[in-house]
Amino acid sequence: MPGNRTSWPDGRQTRKVDQMTIEMLTYQYVAPGNDVLQATLREHDESTDEFLFEHFRLLVQKSESGSTPCGSFREQEAKDLFIKLEKGDNEEFLGAATTFTERLVSEMDLRASAGLLVFARFVDEGPTSTAVLKLDVVSAHAGVLRQIADGSQSLEAVRDVLDSPGKLQKGLVTPDIREDSEIFVSDRLTKASEYFLRAFGVIIDARPVEAVLAVVQVVAQEVPDATVKVISVLPKIESGPLDETLDSLVEKVPELAPKRQAIEDSLREQQRPVRRIDTSAGFKAKIIAGAISITGPAAIVDKSVTWSPNMSQGWKVEIASTGEPKKTYNK
Predict the structure, then answer these.
(1) Is position 324 within any domain?
(2) Do 194 and 289 lie in a common domain?
């Protein structure tokens, strides 16, 4: 059941969502420049509940898998509004939904897709959970095949088809039972979806690959000569909180010491802050030489590819390989 918690043998918590009901529901069509109406409670039938529950269930499943970044509030107002969505009475729930809808529409520009902004409070006999879903219109026209009473089938047209469960681009769930996370944010969000995060006052941490790459990029700015060494050392130290990982990194790359605090400050101030480093997360390097590109795991590229001036041709690039190179052609 949604508010109840159980624990895995490794101490990780999970939340049951198999027997739940929607206590409060409101939704409103949103589009750039659209007028926002005062939110009202919406009636909902069993099919609507099943549709929204499946969206909620899949979001919770993702949050408990540990594969998505942690989220936190960038402002107290947004945190207070979510408390009203989760625990407030009817008036507080609807007031918070109206405020968030106004904030969202004000952040939308012509690149933002129109859709349905849904606020739902899910309950059982335990604590409540709140989901905010922006269901985008993914198809203006579609067809459905329906079974009718005599056993035959009929084709029916439907308009303005919304995101199906599992395909949702923009969704939030509170509370987030993960350690160090206040709110779960759908991990399908892209850079173009930053308006959604701003509207709800949320910050999400950098994903593992983004975090490791950010470390290398900041080092390249602060201590350029140490960049290659950092790339080779990172996979050899333990993953962990940012400060602990940087301490281990400085032990192995002492030339970082004078800039250690500046590096940490820069990483924490990223648009998607770095709070934890997964040193096993690999990233690639790309070398461009005229019309030729060489791409591969960063540590291997740094170790295997060298270049030097060539008096007759400009530059000479050399690749060291343990296996015999092969050539293929493609378009």
Answers:
(1) no
(2) no
Do 302 and 226 lie in a common domain? Answer: no
Instruction: Give yes or no: residues 74 and 123 share one domain.
Output: yes
Domain that holds residue 220: 208-277
Strand 292-297 and strand 305-310: pairing? unpaired
pLDDT per residue of the chain (331 residues) written in tens, 0 to 9? 334 443 333 343 445 555 678 899 999 989 999 999 999 999 888 888 888 888 888 888 877 766 678 899 999 999 999 999 999 999 999 999 999 999 999 999 988 888 889 999 998 776 789 999 988 766 555 444 455 555 544 444 445 455 566 677 789 999 888 878 899 998 677 777 789 999 999 999 988 888 999 999 999 999 999 999 999 899 888 988 999 999 999 999 999 999 999 999 999 999 889 998 888 877 788 889 888 888 888 778 878 888 888 877 788 888 888 888 887 878 7
Domain match, 146 and 61 both: yes
Own/partner pairs, 43-52, CB within 8 angstroms, 24+ separation? 49/21, 49/22, 51/165, 52/22, 52/25, 52/118, 52/120, 52/131, 52/133
| Residue 165 belongs to a domain | yes
Q: How many domains does the chain have?
A: 3
Which residue, 151, 170, 204, sits at the end of a domain?
204
In a domain, 4, yes or no: no
Read off the pTM: 0.73
Q: Does the residue 326 lie in any domain?
A: no
Which SS3 state, helix, strand or coil, does residue 144 take? strand
* CB of 117 closer than 8 Å to CB of 14: no
Coil, helix or strand for 223? coil
What is the C-alpha separation between 180 and 167, in angstroms, rounded?
26
DSSP alpha helix (H) spans, 142-201: 194-199
The tokens for 231 are: 């790339």
